[in-house]
Write a structure and sequence with these properties.
This protein is an alpha/beta fold and 254 residues long. It has 8 helices and 7 strands, in the order βαβαβαβαβαβαααβ. Helix 1 crosses helix 8, helix 3 crosses helix 4 and helix 4 packs parallel to helix 5. The longest helix has 22 residues.
Length: 254
């Protein structure tokens, strides 16, 4: 490790998916503040432009891409690296959350969750390992959830998808270690993102209080998760791979 700070990201390039809002946006902003060049990605070009404009420093880019077109991810990463430069890592923050009781479950909704939360991560890892895409050593951070570690009514398919992300991180870590690519996952508790706030609006005050009580340190902020992502992407985490880092305000301590 060099004598410079292992948290200094100057001269490094990262891709952040789901960067239009919430956790992804917070990750992009923090990486930029730490000196990195950031390529932000999402479906909505206008919202991406807003994120891009909010980043400190220079050298950032936006690349709109619909991750539902999963088979196109490797070719897209080739294009990103060709124009932006080889990536030192990626934070895969894009994903979907769905509260759906078992009585309302169907194949389409379960398939959508698995595709968006799991399949895209598989293809992103495949794309990152391509020649010329990653500047080794590199790091991939996947977005899991405490729902993948602890059961919760109404979240069967979502929890299954996040449990799969945890397993994916461990398997990819072993497969890509020889290629000098580290893979880890983050498992946040409930974070005050626009999506979570919309969910809260549909709950009673009593229900909201019960959820908050399950997090001894209170609900998290996107910046709390962003700090953990930046750590795992940085040289400070050079000996960490195949782990699931829980950031939940004590939720899983129960």
């Amino acid at each position: 490790m060099s004598s410079s700070s292992p948290f200094d990201l100057a001269g490094r390039r990262y891709l952040v998916t789901g960067a239009s809002s919430g956790i992804g946006q917070a990750v992009a902003r923090l990486l930029a503040r730490l000196g990195a060049a950031v390529c932000v990605s999402g479906r909505d070009a206008a919202r991406l432009a807003s994120t891009l404009a909010s980043l400190d420093g220079a050298g950032h880019e936006a690349s709109a891409f619909d991750l539902d077109q999963a088979d196109g991810i490797p070719a897209w990463l080739k294009e990103v690296a060709a124009g932006f430069g080889p990536l030192h890592g990626a934070a895969h923050c894009a994903g979907v959350h769905e509260l759906r009781p078992l009585r309302a479950a169907d194949a389409a909704s379960a398939g959508r969750l698995l595709h968006t939360n799991v399949t895209t991560g598989v293809l992103l890892a495949r794309g990152l390992r391509q020649k010329g895409v990653a500047e080794r050593p590199a790091s991939l951070v996947l977005m899991s959830s405490v729902a993948g570690l602890a059961g919760q009514p109404g979240l069967a398919a979502y929890s299954a998808s996040k449990g799969a992300v945890n397993a994916l991180a461990r398997s990819l870590a072993l497969e890509l270690a020889g290629e000098n690519i580290r893979v880890n996952a983050l498992a946040p508790g409930l974070v005050r993102t626009p999506l979570a706030e919309r969910m809260f609006q549909g709950l009673t005050g009593e229900q909201q209080a019960a959820i908050e009580k399950m997090h001894p340190l209170g609900l998290g902020l996107p910046e709390d998760v962003a700090a953990a992502a930046a750590f795992l992407l940085s040289p400070a985490a050079r000996w960490i791979t195949g782990t699931v880092l829980v950031i939940d305000g004590g939720y899983c301590a129960h």
